[in-house]
Structure formats: structure tokens, C-alpha cells
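cron nightly-structures :: item 1 of 1
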Amino acid sequence: MKTDKEIRREIYNRVTDLYGIRKTKKKFVPGKTPVPYGGRVYDEQELLSLVDAALDFWLTAGRFANQFEQDLAEFLEVKYCLLANSGSSANLLAVSALTSPKLAERRLRPGDEVITTACTFPTTLNPILQNNLKPVFVDIELATYNIKAQDLESAMTEKTKAIFAAHTLGNPLDLGAIVRLVKKYGLWFIEDNCDALGSKYQGTYTGTFGHVATLSFYPAHHITTGEGGAVLTSDEVLRRLVASFRDWGRDCWCEPGHDNTCGKRFGWQLGSLPFGYDHKYIYSHIGYNLKITDLQAAIGVAQLKKLPAFIEKRRRNFSLLYQALKEYERYLILPQETPGAEANWFGFIMTVRKDAPFTRRDLVDFLDSNKIATRPLFAGNVIRQPAYQDVDYRIHGSLENTDFVMNNTFWIGVYPGLSDEMIAYVLSKFEEFMEKF
């Protein structure tokens, strides 16, 4: 009878053969083959890792989740990485952890203010509202599309307890200014790094500057697990709090399948429970079940090994687009990398100028008709979205740039799956459109 290893080896060989059959790339046909804004880039290694996890049939977080967390933390040089089932869940966990009574006077309480932007993805804003906190919206800069760091201090009141901001499309925030302000006033800083895995600020990876930071592994992101996300921190207390909110709100921190890590499983007395109640079933927070599966994590383990190459390709695609589109700066505001930053761009963003002889809709419709995918900058001005009409918030100053972006900004892809031929085609279509003016 064959051993487990022998049978697995046969399965792996067949999976490799199957990928070999499938991997033949279809020829790119300009005008007929779509040019996506993003997507999966993988090879047989992701399939083999996924099958390996499937054969274990552990299903919930296990050895692959542990390896992915360890490898990702080491890559970013942060102490802890906690996987979640999505980047949106990671954002919820990051904010919720800061409401824990275990933080005593530093905990976020209902009514506390959190400074953020209205030019955002909804699930950066939603955790603020879901935790009964009050968002304070500060406008963004054109060209970088990040929060105006110079306006943060004047936006503060005695109720301001945190800043929660994203690195827009992979372009790092002005982290020097933000970190100085956070330290000066003792604020929490939550870093939404979902679109910026692999970006750097002054030589250090983003996602390591905040007290907590988040990642997304949705298929369009820098690496993918299909659905999935992570919370990053170098604070042991915050690590335990995030894990608690992620894992049903339990007080216990044992890994799945393990008991009595604390050494006194039946020696606790918390709340008004009787002494000795099983610590595995004591709940210190009103939490969730937001864990990732080992099947997803197995894909992440393989994807992470490709991240350096993905970064190089994204930056190259961005540079090709930028150098060619500079010719049209009289009509377009092109993206500007934050000083001191090295962005791992999520997309190539541009804004149609006020005095341009065409509108965003004109250009986007033309690109769409030529099979070139575009996207707006997420929700535009999120408070104009129907879901947020009755939300309690405060605006500092005006949201002039946010509204301008809502009406005039869009982005196209730079992801590693785009070939030089695709990039050349995209540029040819810009040239064709601009020749009319």
C-alpha cells in the first residue's frame, strides 16, 4: 500500500500537469481582449499549496495560517500579524480593539472623535460608526489623494482620540507629520494599509507606523487569498485584544486545538461568573468570528513569495503610464508620490482638470468602449452616498477637493497581470482620444 507521502506526491504531480495545460496565455487582441484594472496573478505554487491544505482537511486556521502570519510579519518587520476573513473585517477589528475596557482610560468610548477622510472606501468609515464613534472629515490633497496632514491639528477637539486614514491607492500618507501629531497629543493611529502592501515611507514599510494597521487580500490587491485580510501591530496588548474580538470575544488566547496555554484554565474568576469557570468559554468582549481558513492562508503563503516581483512590476507599469501621460498634463492632474515615499501603486489615478475640453465621463466612456477598465476613487465623497445620509459626523473646513475628485477622478490598472502590449494599447487609446482636442 502506498504511503500518505507517496499519494500526495502523485496528486501534486497531477496538479502541476493540470496547471501546465491551463497556463497557456491567450493572445492579446487589442480592442477585443479586456484590459482589467486588477486581478489574480498565480502559478502552480498557489494550486499546490491549496491542495496541500485541502488534503490536511483542517479547514479552520491551522499550520498555513500560522506560517502566513509569521512570514508576513517578518517581511514587514512588525511583531504580530493576525489574519482575518477580509480587509473590511480587519478594519472592524482594529477599531473595535481600541474600545476594549482593558485599555482603561485610553479606550475609545461612544462619542469620541476619529479623524478620517470622506474620500474613502466605505469599510474604512464603517467601523467608526459601528463602534458609536464620531467621524471628523478632513479634506484630501489633489495629486496625492491623501488626507491633508497640515489640517489635522486644527481639526482636533478635546474629544479627538484617534486618526484612521488610508494610503490612497498605495501612495503613503505623510507619515512623518501624522506620527508627530499622534505622539504630541497621545492619539491612537490606525493605518489602513489595504491598498499599500509593499509601499515604503522613508525606507520603512507602511503598515508599521500605526498602533494597528490593516491589510486586504481581495483578488485585486497586491497579493490575494480570494477573501482575506490581516491586522498588524507590534503591541502585545493590542495583539490579544484584536485576537479576542476576532475569536468570538473570548478571554482565552489558546490557539485552535490547544488547551490551557495560560496554565490556569479552571483558575479564573471574571465578571460575575463562578470561580473556576472554563476560561475557554469566558468572553471579555462583544466579539465576532472573523477568522480566515487554512485553505485561504495556504494561497497567501505562496503569494507572499511573489510579492517582491509584484512590487517591481506594479512600479514599472506605473512608470510606463506616467512617462507617456505626462504629455497630457494640460488636461490631466497626474498622481504625485508623497515626498519620501516609495509607493507600491494599487492603480494609476488621474483627475480631469476643470478647464479640460472634455469630462471624466467622456474619457471613461471612451476607454470603456475600448475594453479598458476604469474605476472611480471608491465612494467619491462617502457622505453623499445613500447609506450615510443620517450619520452623525463633523466636517473640518470644506471637502472641496473631495467633491472635485468625486466628479473628475478615476484610475486604471497597473497590476502585474498587465503585459507591455496591454500598456502600449492603453496608451495608444489615450493618444487617440487626446488627438481630438
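cron nightly-structures :: done
Residues 15 and 48 are 7 Å apart (CA to CA).
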